[in-house]
Amino acid sequence: MGQVLIVRHGQADTVGDDYDRLVERGFAQCRALGASLATRGVTVDRVVRGGMRRHRESAEALIEGMGSAPEVGVDRGWDEFDHLAVLAREPYSGPPPTGRVFQQWFEAAVLRWTSGADANYPETFIEFTQRVGGALQRAAESDGTTMVVTSGGAIGWVAAQLTGSDFGAERQAALWRTFNMVCANSGLTRVVSGRRGLSLVSFNEQAHLDGTDLLTYR
Fold first, then answer.
1. How many CB atoms neighbour CB 168 within 10 A?
2. Residues 27-33: what's their mean pLDDT?
3. Predicted local confidence at residue 186, as pLDDT
4. Interior CA angle at 197 toward 195 and 202, to 5°?
5. Start-to-end C-alpha separation, the chain
6. Cα separations in angstroms, 108 against 15, 101, 169
7. What pTM was computed for the model?
8. Which of 11, 64, 103, 127 could pair covalently with 26 via S-S, beta carbons 3.0-4.6 A apart?
9. 55: how many CB neighbours lie within 10 A of its CB?
10. Do 146 and 1 form a contact (C-beta atoms < 8 A)?
């Protein structure tokens, strides 16, 4: 039985000009997870990361924390959806949004994207889910333990796909929106591969951050 350990990247720079880079807290979150896995005797045979800078930096910090140097590969199927393209399709007028206003705008934009009523995106929600689903299948092909470093949207779809396979598309999309909103930075999700196929056995583990000031969600 193989397993896939799926890690959300560490905290990125939400206030600077480049979200696709970790802040120091993000590096610390990933080092903490790596150290926790090493302490528990978890052996990672290979690492697969998305193609974004925050994925690379998170993978490097995880490996530093583990104190080992497994093989690292890149699979862009694990890249995050383009949130700027999604926001661009949702009309907004007024001063630059911050805080709660931005969150309301973002949630409305995501709802529009996942509804399928508007196909004018560089990547539709269906295309995104197919891309992530393919990446999950590739990661699960190997025996042993594969660690994936990716983003909240991809992790949310893995969870929605594996827990909502008997649901219709609309309910699966609603599940994805829920899972996506609660993914913690450096949170760990476990998927096992067995005779029944792929199963989600845990979602968004955060114990490695207990007793610290490192827990963040954005």
1. 9
2. 98
3. 98
4. 110
5. 33
6. 22, 11, 18
7. 0.95
8. 11
9. 29
10. no
According to the model, what pLDDT value does residue 17 have? 67
The two structure tokens encoding residue 145: 């333990």
Cβ 132 vs Cβ 77: under 8 Å: yes
The sign one gets for the Cα dihedral 64, 200, 4, 155 is negative
Question: Could you tell me how far CA 203 lies from the centroid of its own chain?
Answer: 11
What sign for the dihedral angle of Cα 60, 42, 180, 49? positive
Alpha helices, DSSP H only, in the chain?
24-39, 53-66, 83-88, 99-115, 125-139, 152-163, 169-181
3 state DSSP class of 49: strand
Q: What's the token pair of residue 157? A: 């779809």
What does DSSP assign to residue 12? Answer: B
Whole-number percent of the chain with pLDDT over 90: 86
Name the burial class of residue 80, with classes exposed (0-12), middle (13-18) and buried (19+) by CB atoms within 10 angstroms of its CB.
Answer: buried
Buried b (16+ CB within 10 A) or exposed e, 58-68: bbbbbbebbee
Q: How far apart are CA 25 and CA 74, in angstroms?
A: 24
CB 110 within 8 A of CB 124: no
Predicted local distance difference test score (pLDDT) of residue 16: 65
**Tokens describing residue 57:** 């930096």
Retrieve residue 60's tokens: 């490097």
Sign of the four-CA dihedral 191, 184, 153, 47: negative
